[in-house]
Amino acid sequence: MNKKLYILIGLAVVLMLSATSCEDFLYQQPRLSQTTELTLSTYEGLQAATLGCYSPLYSSSWYGRNFVVTADLKGGNAKISPLNSGRFRTDYLWNNTPDASHALWTRAYQAIARTNNVINVIEDGFEEVGVSQAELNQLVGECKFIRALAYFDLARLFCQPYSLGADQLGVPVVLITENGKPERDNLGVVYDQVEADLLDAAAYLAAVSPNGGTDAVGWATSHAANALLARLYLYMEEWQTAADYATTVINGFPGSMYSATDYTTWDLGGVWGTDGASEVIFEVYGSEGNSTHANWDVISYIMSPDGYGDVGASDDVRNLMEEGVDVRHNLFVNTSAWPNDYWSLKYPGKAPDGNLREDNIVVLRLAEMYLIRAEAILNGASISGATAVGDVNLIRSNRGATALGDVTLTDLYQERRRELCYEGHELFDLARTQRPLVRVDYDGAVNQNIPFPDYRWAMPIPQAEMDANENMVQNPGY
Predict the structure, then answer these.
(1) Are 25 and 50 in contact (CB under 8 A)?
(2) Are the C-beta atoms of 427 and 433 separated by less than 8 Å?
(3) Which own/partner contact pairs does 233-236 have at CB distance under 8 Å and 24+ positions apart?
(4) Is 438:449 a contact under the CB 8 Å cutoff?
(5) By three-state DSSP, how is residue 360 classified?
(6) How far apart are CA 472 and CA 461, in angstroms?
(7) DSSP 3-state assignment of 343?
(8) Which domains does the chain have, with CATH numbers?
(9) Which residues contact 30 (CB under 8 A, 6 or more apart)?
(10) At the N or C end, where does the chain have fewer CB atoms within 10 A?
(11) Rounded CA gap, 297 and 293, in Å?
(12) What is the pTM (predicted TM-score) of this model?
């Protein structure tokens, strides 16, 4: 399939190629007089364009704040705190409408547009004296990884889960950037594209990024592509393949599991959120130098009582952790003004000074691979030497938690919640496993619990998109 990427008027998709993901990555900006064609006519320009593909990931619409926060607010891990100023109440109450949906749509398609430009130029036969095919493949691999992540996140947020069927409404899969009005593909087509891009990325990317900089895991690598494939196959319920890819990462990734000390944040003597932390496979590197940095509208500020503090921690997830034993129970903070309310410490601001305007946002890490493999084994997969209880207890032993004698799927889901809370998983974990949302610690006026199935598990397509594209179909129920 070779569909075209249509830039819709209502989305204002800007195809700037100069933004960077990390402050150390690149400061050189393409001249304002340059066209896209001129920028992409040299290897140096293609490198700069690839760097620009990382930047949307850090926007407040995506991993910089809203995508992660929405998944935990709507999933029951987070709640509106007593410091709330009105932010995120719509998500918390599950009252989203086309006029109050999610801006990920715009940012993800911006990233897709940028990646398409680089991929198409190189795959159409770009050559330059002194530039090897391996160097070009590295750029294609980075772009395909980012494009796959964009489509996967769009599908998770705006579509019903894949477990309900591949023939349902997906999002437009578009691979060439130009104007037009695309129709939605079915979800199977979207997942097929994510899979194809990640398989190419895993083959093309180096195990250690050649880009350098202060944070090696802020770049796409073959380990990151394999880890995202493991997650993709988990969502597709291809249990053996999910287990195989998770095992590939577990056996090949050079990092190691956080110890109980490591798991805490830098201000508590740990490494969470610091550059290149040992368990992290891929993260979005936080920097005020990023062109999509949102000033104070960042994840650290919204989740800290020393910042805006609108998004607090739910007792529903805190109560799953053994107090005084499980180090994960320590990753919460209260204040003298609000002694009975808590906030997550997973985003304390970057070390060493705790700048709340910056934080690294973890996307993939080693613990998730063990959880994926354990869930796959519980669903029938087989890996020599591995057991579900062994994988779960490996995590628990590294968090100071009591070992389990056996593991059921319910135990597994609870362990995922303990380990991955505030990293943007719980909403999608509930959806893919077709479990209802049940909230005990809740102070909203409506929608405390959400049954499954329900139309609201897919966010509405933004109204601006509906207005701009006569071929776009709204999700049922809206």
Answers:
(1) no
(2) no
(3) 234/372, 234/375, 234/376, 234/432, 235/156, 235/161, 235/162, 235/163, 235/191, 235/428, 235/432, 236/162, 236/191
(4) yes
(5) coil
(6) 9
(7) strand
(8) 9-30+37-438 (1.25.40.390)
(9) 17, 18, 39, 45, 48
(10) N
(11) 8
(12) 0.93
